[in-house]
Amino acid sequence: MTPLIADEVHVESPEAAVAPPSVRLDPDLLSDIKRFGAADVSACFSCGNCTAICPLSDGDGTFPRRMIRYAQLGMKDALISSKELWSCYHCGTCSDSCPTQADPAGFMAAARRYAIASYDRTRLARTLSTRAVLGTIIALALAAFFALFMYASHGVERASRLALFDFIPERLIHLTGVVVMSLVALAALVGVASMVAGIARREGVRFRDVLGGPGAWGRSLRALWLALGIEALGQRRYRNDCGEAAEAEPLYRRRWLIHALTLWGFLGLFLATILDYGLALIGVKATGTPVPIWYPVRLLGTVAGAAMVYGATLLIWNRLRRANVTASQSQFSDWLLLALVWVTGVTGFAIEVALYLPHPPTWGYWVFLVHVAVAIELVLLLPFTKLAHAIYRPVALFFHALAGTRTAESN
User: Fold this and answer.
1) Are 46 and 162 contained in the same domain?
2) For a disulfide at 29, which of 39, 74, 256, 321, Cβ 3.0-4.6 Å?
3) What percent of the chain has pLDDT over 90?
4) Number of compact structural domains in the chain
């Protein structure tokens, strides 16, 4: 058995494995994280088995062992400022091999929910993660509010063609979207600023290390490419290192692919929406006008929507049948995100079908109303649900890649 190692708390010897005097401790940290779905990791005696078996753990990322020690010691700032917290893809290998069944994988997932709530100043993320009943009420109330808000300004339902933006004015949707996106951007910026400040302080990264000259620019651009292009979008380590246990699964059911299709689909739909509005602004086509399926923006939206619905459907199915560690540990916030993503995608396809039918169905107007309300809610809740991973994980991966780049240059 390995003793409590020094690098867990950055001290010199196992006997000194306590937090430095200058570190502020939170004695309620571990019990608070349990409210976000963590198991009782007090059973963990730091044997190091989880770190040894984790395919992603390396000299600069001794997780989940280090994260668990932070929680046990009450080192909140160290925990939520750890880039390693976001490097984990929750494959469950560590929990399968834990000799005390402390469930380190479940702890890491709960710690990420806790970190999202800690970055959020509104406490909405905490409510959605820890209070299922109230969270359900909030989600339903938001959807109802946006639906009623849109319906209050609805126009005529035309029988000759499906004129969606005569039913709900396009300008109203656009202005509502701008307001919602502004609020989301503000919440995301506050959260990311808090995260970046904490990680930079822990990693000893200063402004000049990132943007202080040609050498720093080169390192930062390389780290950005590794974080966004290779890991966040390409999911290289998730696909190559974390997928070994799932090799028996056919490709279309592998977790990395399901996760990637859901992410790529969401981003593709977001891009298609922006392009559609952009083309409308420059007079190329009116928003919502039926066009051939091979029209570039329409094709992008169709392919992206199919990918998102496919990924979300399999994620829901895996959770219903508790197919893996991640599925068996789903919390309300996970279900809420999947429900919003799935409804947005399915209603979007229903609208597309209705637009191309020879005789426009009146149900298309009501599906459109639901689609708009849920889509706006999905975007509004982005910084407060598991979808916030799309914001915070790339930031953590950037610092992880930057540390690797700096280490390589120093050797």
Assistant:
1) no
2) 74
3) 38
4) 2
